[in-house]
Amino acid sequence: MDILKAATDWAKAELVSTSFFIIIGIVFVMASFGFWQFGKTELARAYIIPILVAGAFLMTVGFGLFFTNKARITQFETAYNADASAFVASELKRAESTLKEYKNIVFTAIPLIIVACALVMFFVNTPIWRASMISTIAMLAVILLIDGMAHARIDDYNKQLLQAEKELKN
User: Fold this and answer.
1) Domain range for residue 76?
2) What is the 3-class SS of the chain, one letter each residue?
3) Amino acid 55: pLDDT
């Protein structure tokens, strides 16, 4: 098993995935501009800031992850060539930590926040609150979608790392 190739393929797939944060963030910013230019009702005008903030957040997350993973690709080969077993051990630790974070944040906290936003919408009916809660739910749904796929990739990568660790011990 070529774990260096698996690590590089995983990081390249993450680059594609994080690009979707950026693209959808741009769409949110464009929607905010559209509400600003064409919004006639109080509710439409209320979406300007929440959608803009959500778009800026998604783009910030996307760019941060993009540049982190891009740098990681070049570091993989250096680390692997220096000490393959240390590389596998550090990547295994990082992958397992990331899987725990996904479980706690993406698949527990985010759904709870979505429920809380829905409850706020149910009880508070002013345009700014409604727009803010809907914008938050939309942003969190995007994060769930993208991170759900990223979770599957890192879970597969983790299994490959476990296999590589067994091979290196033999």
Assistant:
1) 3-169
2) CCHHHHHHHHHHHHHHHHHHHHHHHHHHHHHHHHHHHHCCCHHHHHCHHHHHHHHHHHHHHHHHHHHHHHHHHHHHHHHHHHCHHHHHHHHHHHHHHHHHHHHHHHHHHHHHHHHHHHHHHHHCCCHHHHHHHHHHHHHHHHHHHHHHHHHHHHHHHHHHHHHHHHHHHC
3) 98
Cα angle value 31/33/39 (rounded, 5°): 85
Q: Which pLDDT tens digit goes with each residue over 138-170?
A: 999 999 999 999 999 999 999 999 999 998 887
User: pTM to 2 decimals?
Assistant: 0.91
Confidence at residue 170, expressed as pLDDT on a 0 to 100 scale? 75
State how many domains the chain has: 1
Instruction: Please tell me the distance from the alpha carbon of residue 90 to that of residue 75, in angstroms, as a whole number.
Output: 12
CA pair distance 23, 110, nearest whole angstrom: 21
